[in-house]
C-alpha cells in the first residue's frame, strides 16, 4: 500500500510520518534549513511485525510547491489528510483535498495533529469543521484520529486503522504494459542511473527492455527495488526504483515527468479528450480555449482547454473537453488529470482521460460526443467498443485501442458482432452489421453509376470511392471492394469495376461513329491515324472522336498509347505476340522497329506503353519482357 499525506504547510505531516514509521525521512539540506518540506520525501515501514512494507509519501504543503505535491500524489492508494488542531482547515487543506478527489484516490483517513497544544474542545471543533469539509465529497464520514507526534497520543490507533486499510486493499491489476511515471532520478556510485516512481500498471523484472521519455530511448533494467527492498520483479501499486542503462544515457537526459514504458505502449500525443470537472469553488466560469497547467502522472505541462459542449463551463459543472498540449505526453484511458490556472497559482479542476489520441477535426460532432459518452461510461474496452464501432463508420484501429486501454489484443474478449478487416495498412475493426451495410451501399452506388453512365463499363476503385462517398480511408475501401470481388458481387474488367450483369451500351450516335472509326484503325495496322485524321476522315469534330475513343478504351476495345493515338485491342495483342517471338527476353528497339515497319519514334512510343502496362520493364537503357504479364500468357496471343 502507498500512503500519501495531504494538508497545509506546517500542519505536522512530516512529524506524523516520523512518529508512525520511526524514520526521519528523506530530507534535503534546504528543507532542514527552512523547516518545511519542499520536495517529495519517502519512507517505508511495516505497520505490524507480520505486515508487508507500506510506502509513505510526504508531500509539501506550501502553495508554491503544489506541483511537487501533484507529482507525489500519483499512484497513492490512501490519502492521510493532516489538519493541525491549532489552525484548523486552511487554504492548502482545501486545495490538497480537491486534488486528491480529482485524482480519484479511493480511501482517506484524517489525522488531527498537534492535539497536545490545544484544549479538547478545540480538537472537537476542528473535527466538526473537517466533517463539514468532507461531507459533499467521496470522503464523507472518513475516520478521524486526534494525534500528537510529540506525546504519541493516537498514533497507535492511526497505525491500526492504516493496517486494516492495507488488509482490505484490493491489489491492482497486473495486466497491461508496465508504466512508471518518474518522480526522481539520481546516480548511485558503482550502479549508475536510478529512477523512481510508483508502478501504475503491469509488471517489470530485471533484464526487461523499456522506452524512456517522449523520444522513446531504449533502456535496460539492470536491477530494481520494490517497496525499498531488493527484488527481481515489481508490480503495479508498488514504489519502484529501477537501475537502468543504455548507450550514451546521462542523468541530465532524465527529468521528473518522463515515463518509463513497455515498448508497445509508447505513443506520445498532444491531444487528449477528457471528462472535465470545474471545481465548485471557482469564482468564474472556464472559457473555451483557456490556457492551463496540465498535471498528468508526474508531468507538468502547459495546454489549452477546448470545450466540446459549449463556450463556457460553470463552476461545479462537468463537460467533455479536449486538451491541446504544448509538449508530448503519455496517457491511457482512465488516467486522472489535474488542471491549474495559467500562472499555476490555484487548482481549477480536473477529470480523467477518455481518449489520448483525440481527433483534430469534428471533435464537437454528435458522433464524436456519443463516442465520448460511451468512453465516460465504460470501465473496460469491451464495454466501450460497441458504441465506438456504432459511431465510427470508418473502422477502429486495434493498435490504437491497445494503447488507449493498455491492453493487448490477445486479452480482448470480442463480441461476435465485431469483424476484423485486413487492409494494406493493418487490420481495422467494424461492427459486422455496419460492414455489411457498407458493402450494400457500394453495390447500390455502383448500380446508380451504371444508370447514369450506361456507355461506360464502370469506374475504377478511386472513382467508385468518390462516387459512393463513404467515410472510409482508401485502404479500408480497397479491402471492401476486394471482398465484394471475392464474393463475385462485383466484377472487374481491367481496372474497371461493374456489376456482373452490366454491359456498356453506346448510344446511337457513338455506335454510328464507331462503325466508321474502327475500320480505319484496323486497316492502318501498326501506324493508326491520329484523332485529328480520324475526325477529318469521318467529318466529325475532334472532341467527339476523342471522347468516343476514350469510352472505347474503358470498354477495352482500344488502347491509348499516347495522347490522341489509339490502337485497337487486336493490334496491341498482335504487337505483343511479335515482341514475345523475338529471341530471348531482352528487347532490341531496332529489331522491334523493323518487325513493325514503322519509325523509331513510334516504336519507342509503343514500347513505353508496354512499360506502363507491365509487359516490359525498363532497366537503364535496356528493356526486358515480363513473362508474368497477361499479354504474355499463351492463351492471350
Briefly note the structural class of the backbone: alpha+beta
Return the CATH architecture of the largest domain. Answer: 3-Layer(aba) Sandwich
Number of helices: 18
Quaternary assembly? single chain
Percentage of residues in strands: 25-35%
Alpha carbon gyration radius:
36 Å
Task: Give the mean pLDDT.
Answer: 89
Pick out the low-confidence regions: 27-39, 61-65
Task: Quickly count the domains.
Answer: 5
Please provide the count of β strands. 31
The amount of helix comes to 25-40%
CATH topology group of the largest domain = Rossmann fold
The largest sheet is: 6 strands, mixed
Query: What overall geometry do the principal axes of the alpha carbons give?
Result: elongated
CATH superfamily of the largest domain: P-loop containing nucleotide triphosphate hydrolases
**What's the end-to-end separation, in Å?**
79 Å
Query: Strand order across the biggest sheet?
Result: 2-3-1-4-5-6
- So what's the CATH class of the largest domain? Alpha Beta
What is this entry, summarized?
This is Selenocysteine-specific translation elongation factor. With 637 residues, the protein is of the alpha+beta class.
Amino acid at each position: 500500500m502507498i500512503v500519501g499525506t495531504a494538508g497545509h504547510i506546517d500542519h505536522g505531516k512530516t512529524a506524523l510520518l516520523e512518529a508512525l514509521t520511526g524514520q526521519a525521512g528523506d530530507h534535503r539540506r534546504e528543507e532542514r534549513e527552512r523547516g518545511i518540506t519542499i520536495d517529495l520525501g519517502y519512507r517505508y515501514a511495516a505497520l505490524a511485525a507480520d505486515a508487508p512494507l507500506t510506502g509513505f509519501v510526504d508531500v509539501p504543503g506550501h502553495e508554491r510547491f503544489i506541483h511537487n505535491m501533484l507529482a507525489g500524489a500519483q499512484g497513492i492508494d490512501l490519502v492521510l489528510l493532516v489538519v493541525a488542531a491549532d489552525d484548523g482547515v486552511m487554504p492548502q487543506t482545501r486545495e490538497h483535498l480537491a486534488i486528491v478527489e480529482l485524482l480519484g484516490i479511493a480511501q482517506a483517513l484524517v489525522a488531527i495533529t498537534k492535539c497536545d497544544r490545544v484544549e479538547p474542545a478545540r480538537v472537537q471543533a476542528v473535527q466538526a469543521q473537517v466533517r463539514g469539509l468532507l461531507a459533499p465529497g467521496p470522503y464523507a464520514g472518513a475516520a478521524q484520529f486526534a494525534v500528537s507526534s510529540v506525546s504519541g497520543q493516537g498514533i497507535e490507533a492511526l497505525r491500526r486503522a492504516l493496517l486494516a486499510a492495507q488488509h482490505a486493499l484490493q491489489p491492482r491489476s497486473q495486466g497491461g504494459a508496465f508504466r512508471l511515471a518518474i518522480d526522481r532520478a539520481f546516480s548511485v556510485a558503482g550502479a549508475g542511473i536510478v529512477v523512481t516512481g510508483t508502478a501504475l500498471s503491469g509488471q517489470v523484472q530485471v533484464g526487461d527492455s523499456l522506452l524512456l521519455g517522449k523520444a522513446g530511448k531504449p533502456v535496460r533494467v539492470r536491477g530494481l527495488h520494490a517497496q525499498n527492498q531488493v527484488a527481481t520483479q515489481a508490480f503495479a501499486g508498488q514504489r519502484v526504483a529501477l537501475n537502468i542503462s543504455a548507450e550514451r544515457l546521462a542523468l541530465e537526459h532524465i527529468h521528473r515527468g518522463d515515463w518509463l514504458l513497455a515498448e508497445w505502449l509508447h505513443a506520445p500525443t498532444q491531444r487528449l479528450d477528457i471528462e472535465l470537472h470545474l471545481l465548485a469553488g471557482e469564482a468564474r466560469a472556464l472559457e473555451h480555449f483557456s490556457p492551463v497547467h496540465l498535471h498528468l502522472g508526474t508531468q507538468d505541462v502547459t495546454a489549452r482547454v477546448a470545450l466540446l459542449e459549449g463556450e463556457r463551463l460553470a463552476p461545479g459543472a462537468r463537460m467533455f473537453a479536449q486538451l491541446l498540449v504544448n509538449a508530448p505526453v503519455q496517457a491511457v484511458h482512465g488516467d486522472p488529470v489535474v488542471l491549474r490556472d495559467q500562472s499555476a497559482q490555484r487548482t481549477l479542476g480536473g477529470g480523467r482521460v477518455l481518449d489520448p489520441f483525440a481527433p483534430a477535426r469534428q471533435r464537437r460532432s454528435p458522433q464524436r460526443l456519443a463516442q465520448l459518452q460511451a468512453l465516460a461510461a465504460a470501465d473496460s474496452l469491451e464495454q466501450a467498443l460497441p458504441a465506438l464501432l456504432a459511431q465510427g463508420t470508418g473502422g477502429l484501429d486495434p493498435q490504437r485501442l491497445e494503447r488507449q486501454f493498455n491492453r493487448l489484443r490477445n486479452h480482448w474478449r470480442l463480441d461476435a458482432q465485431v469483424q476484423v478487416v485486413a487492409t494494406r495498412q493493418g487490420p481495422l475493426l467494424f461492427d459486422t452489421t455496419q460492414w455489411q451495410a457498407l458493402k450494400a451501399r457500394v453495390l447500390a452506388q455502383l448500380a446508380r453509376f451504371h444508370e447514369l453512365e450506361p456507355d461506360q463499363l464502370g469506374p475504377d476503385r478511386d472513382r467508385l470511392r468518390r462516387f459512393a462517398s463513404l467515410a472510409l480511408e482508401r485502404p479500408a475501401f480497397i479491402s471492401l471492394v476486394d471482398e465484394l470481388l471475392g464474393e463475385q458481387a462485383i466484377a472487374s474488367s481491367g481496372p474497371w469495376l461493374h456489376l456482373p450483369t452490366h454491359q456498356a451500351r453506346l448510344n446511337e450516335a457513338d455506335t454510328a461513329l464507331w462503325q466508321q472509326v474502327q475500320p480505319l484503325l484496323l486497316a492502318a495496322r501498326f501506324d493508326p491515324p491520329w484523332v485529328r485524321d480520324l475526325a477529318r476522315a469521318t467529318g466529325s469534330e475532334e472532341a467527339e472522336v476523342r471522347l468516343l475513343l476514350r469510352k472505347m478504351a474503358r470498354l477495352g476495345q482500344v488502347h491509348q498509347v499516347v495522347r490522341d493515338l489509339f490502337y485497337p485491342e487486336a493490334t496491341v495483342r498482335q504487337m505483343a505476340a511479335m515482341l514475345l517471338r523475338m529471341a530471348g527476353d531482352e528487347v532490341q528497339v531496332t529489331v522491334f522497329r523493323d518487325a513493325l515497319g514503322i519509325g523509331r519514334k513510334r516504336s519507342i512510343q509503343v514500347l513505353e506503353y508496354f512499360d506502363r502496362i507491365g509487359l516490359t520493364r525498363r532497366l537503364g537503357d535496356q528493356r526486358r519482357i515480363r513473362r508474368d504479364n497477361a499479354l504474355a500468357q499463351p492463351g492471350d496471343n
